[in-house]
């Protein structure tokens, strides 16, 4: 498959993606040198809002319905290795950049008044994490992708270690980093193998020895055997990140011991599934098709297994960790149905995660701040004391369950549509998981919020303040907006998803050497990479 | 012929707007109640306005939005939908009037929430009745589940919450686990969600898939209370009487039956059902419910519980009749949808009237009550006889058609089912009537309780103690008895009217069938 690229200079006049990556870093530097904490938080919020505004501009300027890669920037980086600074977005990645910016705004708003999180290094870390995450979503060069992927670990470690609430936070921080490093090592090997394959195939031609560029590799044939090897290497890495069962145990620990802000990033941005959709499936189409049943089965397993464990959780954060794992499974079932509806469904499940799952964690944070605990033993009849909190919690929980009218329904419905066509048995299992999500969320809600107020400790429970209620209201509004009017968002993703589904059907490009393909020169810019 | 018309959308939108107005006028009960009544009347008029064009053979369409590509939220008013919607909107009007009398007599709290939720429930019901495709139907079906939850748990007691929880569990679990997959499998096989008279599946579709889809639909139609997925219904009796009337006569249960009717007629089609023997299979399956539910009801003493199980039995009877795939049986089955609504709502209204007047809820306590509440028990008699199927009532017409249909199609064993259920139901209904009219009262003459002086203390024991919760000024009732008696007299009279002159309804039913 050949993807056309539209350059940022032509499309919008300035390197918007680089700006999106660099802006939080610059602001982080500014924040670090501010005199006091209050100005720091204002600056951080300003930075996050500016970033969100820029991301929205990106979304609005994006041409929907086409499979082109847009806002491309290419700069030579390491010529001998063949790595470039190559960023761009298409229908698969563009929704996640505003989503990341949105989650960051939520995180900063959450930390506004809490003494624990009101510190300059905290904001620096959050902004740094935002920059790295956006880098991950925008990267189109595998080496660059890997760089940002690993860079994310630096602020993450500090966030969990220094600002985690739990007693085991140092252990949790270390556990998280170790899991991620171990998980991503196979990915590095896979990347190298892809580069080596390119080198083999293009041996004797002009141009660099290696290439790790997504567009280039997309048009590079790769034998099914090699595909399988690289597929499993990548799959391992993305399964650990996802998280997928059985690699998921880092998630409850991180969510329990780490700060809410970090948790929102972890639960709201499904980088593992993104990795599958962005790189694994398109670059290794035959392997993807051959092993789709396995990944879909793992996804279905995750949906049910995590759902069952969530059912017996009494700690809200642990419950949300398992709920997040369950959603990853659902997205994977959709992604590996390898048809348009399934993949679009997977994308929307991921978007919903950023809204509903992150939203629930935010509300869990509010609860924790008021009661000092995330445990059910400290909750009971909360809706009477804090009706606003109860109301918003219900709305966001219904979105997480996938009530029609909310963003959750779009993803869930499309995933099931796609999955039933591809592998109906696994889809049936996934449906069970959806039932389970209704069960564990509504049961928790009933025990925590409904009925008579139980303990004296909840007697002085203040309801949501203006800032908190405003944040929750914005989340709810976006949930309903995406849920009731998904058409625009679906159109944005459609072109790339259709191209991807077609590409998987056709498989890896033919091995003929006279297919008219010319690899683009790496140095400088080209008009068009055909 | 298909015509574009805003009317179906309007019918669904009016109650939704009313709900907003109800909330806005919550401090002024009379204005608030007027909003409900006006909306109900308006909605009924809109529904009525759709009858002439549909009787002429047209269907009225309106596409609201293309939700996802190939999937749209669209409305389509045809004869079947109009029957359901007409009954629902007319009975909403009567139930609203009744509710005013009932809630004010008991000084109930949370009336704003009650009326608002009621209105939105009617929006959902209209959405179901006028849905043009499975997707729209599913959306409104789910909405109906959620919006009836606050109505079921109105009393806000532990018992109410337990019942509400079970209610949600049953409906949510089955609709996500069965109905949603059913819709998706249908789409996978037919490439469309639309309803099409005669069926949507192309010739040669894999029959295993079709049977799987059908079974999933049957299990997913929990609102039709087919055993063994029926237990939510008796539990929901904890709701106030007008809510039970709504659940059992108007909206929720009929929505379940309506879903099955749509599936049989417009998703599968009579021919395909016959080919796959799904009709007979369904008929046999629901026969058990018809008989078991009615036999179980015989032993019960609580009036509401008896009515609940009687409903369960009758719902399955409707499905049985339609599943026989014989024209006359299907006519009877669809007509039973309307007639059962009228009769059952009469009975529930009467139960409420008895409760308010005497505080009694059990059959064993009803000795001689016919003398104290002649209008109420008279209407009860008409309703009961209609359910049993006595000539001159609407129930007779339906049972006659069903019976003839069974004989015509040579499904004589089902006649036994019909006969048995009729006999047993006659048993327990007549027992009530005997106690009311022919037993000498063992208690001193009961003075009809006046409206309570203080909210929360109705005369005698009450099923719905005024619950704590939102502050809601409970206005002093000014003899609400008329508001309670009038609706039940109207519904009883209608049962008689349709029994004597059924052709208006029959015409519409005829239009609905292929």
Task: Compile the SSE list and pairings.
The complex is a heterodimer of chains A (530) and B (514).
Chain A: E1 5-7, H1 8-11, H2 16-32, H3 37-61, E2 69-78, E3 83-89, H4 96-110, H5 120-138, H6 142-151, H7 153-163, H8 169-201, H9 214-218, H10 224-241, H11 250-257, H12 260-268, H13 271-283, H14 285-290, H15 292-311, H16 316-335, H17 340-371, H18 382-385, H19 387-401, H20 407-422, H21 424-449, H22 466-484, H23 487-506
Parallel strand pairs in A: 1-2
Antiparallel strand pairs in A: 2-3
Chain B: E1 2-4, H1 7-24, H2 29-49, H3 51-55, E2 59-68, E3 71-77, H4 79-106, H5 111-129, H6 134-152, H7 158-190, H8 207-220, H9 232-235, H10 241-250, H11 252-268, H12 270-275, H13 278-298, H14 303-323, H15 327-358, H16 369-372, H17 374-388, H18 394-408, H19 412-438, H20 481-500, H21 503-512
Helix pairs in contact in B: 1-2, 1-5, 2-4, 2-5, 4-5, 4-10, 4-15, 4-20, 4-21, 5-6, 6-7, 7-8, 10-11, 10-15, 11-14, 13-14, 13-19, 14-15, 14-19, 15-17, 15-18, 15-20, 17-19, 17-20, 18-19, 18-20
Account of the 3D structure:
The complex is a heterodimer of chains A (530) and B (514). Chain A has 530 residues and is mainly alpha-helical. Chain A has a domain at 292-509. In chain A, 69% of the residues lie in helices and 4% in strands. In chain A, a hairpin with a 4-residue loop joins strand 2 (69-78) and strand 3. In chain A, helix 16 (316-335) packs antiparallel against helix 21. Chain A is globular. Chain B is mainly α and 514 residues long. Chain B has a three-stranded mixed β-sheet with strand order 1-2-3. The model of chain B is unreliable at 444-479 (pLDDT under 50). Chain A binds chain B through residues 403-405, 410, 413-414, 416-417, 420-421, 424, 427-428, 431-432, 434-435, 438-439, 442, 446, 450-451, 485-487, 490, 494, and chain B through 65-69, 138-139, 142-143, 146, 161, 165, 168-169, 172-173, 176-177, 180-181, 184-185, 187-188.
């Amino acid at each position: 498959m050949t993807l056309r690229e539209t350059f940022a200079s032509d499309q919008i006049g300035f390197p918007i993606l680089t700006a999106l990556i660099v802006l939080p870093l610059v602001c982080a530097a500014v924040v670090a040198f501010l005199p006091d904490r209050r100005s720091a938080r204002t600056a951080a919020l300003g930075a996050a809002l500016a970033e969100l505004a820029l991301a929205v501009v990106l979304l609005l300027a994006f041409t929907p319905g086409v499979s082109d890669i847009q806002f491309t920037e290419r700069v030579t980086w390491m010529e001998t290795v063949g790595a470039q600074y190559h960023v761009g977005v298409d229908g698969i990645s563009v929704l996640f950049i505003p989503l990341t910016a949105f989650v960051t705004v939520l995180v900063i708003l959450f930390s506004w008044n809490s003494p624990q999180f009101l510190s300059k290094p905290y904001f620096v870390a959050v902004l740094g994490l935002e920059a790295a995450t956006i880098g991950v979503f925008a990267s189109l060069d595998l080496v660059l992708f890997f760089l940002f992927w690993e860079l994310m670990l630096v602020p993450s470690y500090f966030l969990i270690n220094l600002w985690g609430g739990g007693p085991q936070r140092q252990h949790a921080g270390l556990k998280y980093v170790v899991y991620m490093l171990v998980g991503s090592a196979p990915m590095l090997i896979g990347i190298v193998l892809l580069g080596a394959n390119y080198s083999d195939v293009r041996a004797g031609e002009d141009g660099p020895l290696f290439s790790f560029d997504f567009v280039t590799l997309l048009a590079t044939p790769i034998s099914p055997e090699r595909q399988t090897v690289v597929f499993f290497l990548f799959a391992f890495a993305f399964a650990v990140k996802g998280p997928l069962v059985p690699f998921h145990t880092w998630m409850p620990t991180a969510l329990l011991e780490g700060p809410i802000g970090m948790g929102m990033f972890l639960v709201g941005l499904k980088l593992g599934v993104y990795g599958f959709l962005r790189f694994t499936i398109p670059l290794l189409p035959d392997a993807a098709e051959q092993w789709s049943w396995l990944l879909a089965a793992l996804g279905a397993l995750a949906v049910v297994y995590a759902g069952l464990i969530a059912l017996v959780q009494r700690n809200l954060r642990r419950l949300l960790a398992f709920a997040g794992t369950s959603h990853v499974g659902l997205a994977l079932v959709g992604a590996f149905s390898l048809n348009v509806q399934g993949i679009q469904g997977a994308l929307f499940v991921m978007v919903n995660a950023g809204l509903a799952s992150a939203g629930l964690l935010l509300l869990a944070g509010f609860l924790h701040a008021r009661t000092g605990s995330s445990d059910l033993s400290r909750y009971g009849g909360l809706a009477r004391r804090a009706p606003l909190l109860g109301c918003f919690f219900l709305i966001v929980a219904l979105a997480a369950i996938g009530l029609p009218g909310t963003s959750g329904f779009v993803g869930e419905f499309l995933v099931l549509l796609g999955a039933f066509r591809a592998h109906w048995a696994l889809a049936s299992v996934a449906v069970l998981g959806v039932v389970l999500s209704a069960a564990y969320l509504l049961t928790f809600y009933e025990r925590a919020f409904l009925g008579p107020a139980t303990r004296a400790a909840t007697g002085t429970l203040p309801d949501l303040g203006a800032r908190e209620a405003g944040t929750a209201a914005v989340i709810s509004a976006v949930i309903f907006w995406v849920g009731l009017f998904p058409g625009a968002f679906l159109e944005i993703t459609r072109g790339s998803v259709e191209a991807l589904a077609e590409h998987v059907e056709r498989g890896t490009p033919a091995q003929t050497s006279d297919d008219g393909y010319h690899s683009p020169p790496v140095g400088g810019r080209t008009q068009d990479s055909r | 012929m298909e015509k574009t018309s805003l009317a179906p959308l309007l019918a669904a939108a009016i109650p939704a707007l009313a709900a907003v107005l109800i909330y806005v006028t919550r401090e002024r009960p009379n204005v608030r109640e007027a909003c409900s009544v006006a909306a109900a009347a308006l909605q009924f008029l809109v529904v009525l306005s759709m009858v002439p064009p549909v009787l002429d053979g047209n269907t009225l369409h309106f596409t609201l939005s293309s939700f996802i590509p190939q999937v749209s939220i669209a409305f389509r008013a045809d004869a079947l939908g109009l029957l359901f919607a007409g009954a629902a909107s007319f009975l909403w009007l009567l139930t609203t009037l009744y509710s005013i009398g009932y809630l004010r007599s008991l000084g109930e709290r949370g009336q704003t929430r009650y009326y608002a939720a009621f209105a939105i429930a009617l929006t959902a019901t209209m959405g179901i009745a006028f849905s043009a495709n499975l997707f729209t139907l599913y959306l409104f079906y789910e909405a109906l589940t959620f919006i009836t939850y606050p109505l079921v748990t109105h009393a806000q007691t532990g018992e109410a919450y337990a019942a509400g929880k079970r209610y949600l569990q049953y409906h949510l679990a089955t609709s996500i686990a069965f109905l949603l997959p059913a819709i998706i499998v249908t789409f996978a096989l037919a490439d469309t969600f639309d309803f099409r008279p005669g069926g949507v599946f192309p010739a040669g579709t894999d029959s295993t898939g079709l049977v799987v889809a059908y079974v999933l639909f049957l299990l997913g139609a929990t609102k039709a209370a087919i055993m063994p997925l029926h237990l939510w219904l008796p539990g929901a009796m904890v709701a106030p009487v007008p809510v039970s009337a709504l659940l059992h006569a108007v909206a929720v249960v009929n929505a379940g039956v309506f879903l099955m009717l749509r599936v049989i007629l417009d998703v599968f089609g009579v021919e395909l059902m016959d080919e796959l023997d799904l009709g007979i299979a369904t008929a046999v399956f629901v026969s058990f419910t018809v008989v078991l539910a009615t036999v179980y009801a015989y032993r019960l003493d609580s009036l509401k519980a008896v009515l609940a199980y009687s409903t369960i039995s009758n719902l399955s009877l409707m499905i049985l009749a339609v599943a026989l795939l014989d024209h006359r049986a299907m006519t009877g089955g669809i007509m039973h949808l309307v007639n059962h609504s009228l009769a059952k709502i009469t009975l529930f209204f009467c139960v409420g009237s008895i409760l308010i007047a005497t505080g009694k809820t059990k059959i064993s306590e009803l000795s001689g009550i016919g003398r104290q509440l002649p209008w109420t028990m008279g209407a009860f008699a008409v309703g009961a006889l209609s359910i049993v199927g006595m000539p001159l009532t609407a129930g007779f017409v339906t049972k006659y058609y069903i019976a003839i249909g069974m004989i015509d199609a040579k499904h004589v064993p089902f006649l036994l089912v019909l006969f048995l259920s009729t006999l047993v139901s006659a048993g327990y209904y007549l027992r009530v009537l005997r106690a009311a009219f022919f037993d000498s009262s063992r208690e001193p003459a009961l003075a009809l309780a006046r409206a309570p002086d203080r909210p929360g203390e109705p005369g005698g024991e009450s099923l719905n103690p005024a619950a704590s919760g939102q502050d809601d000024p409970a206005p002093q009732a000014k003899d609400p008895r008329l508001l309670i008696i009038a609706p039940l007299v109207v519904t009883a009279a209608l049962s008689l009217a349709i029994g004597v002159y059924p052709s208006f309804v029959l015409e519409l039913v005829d239009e609905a069938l292929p």
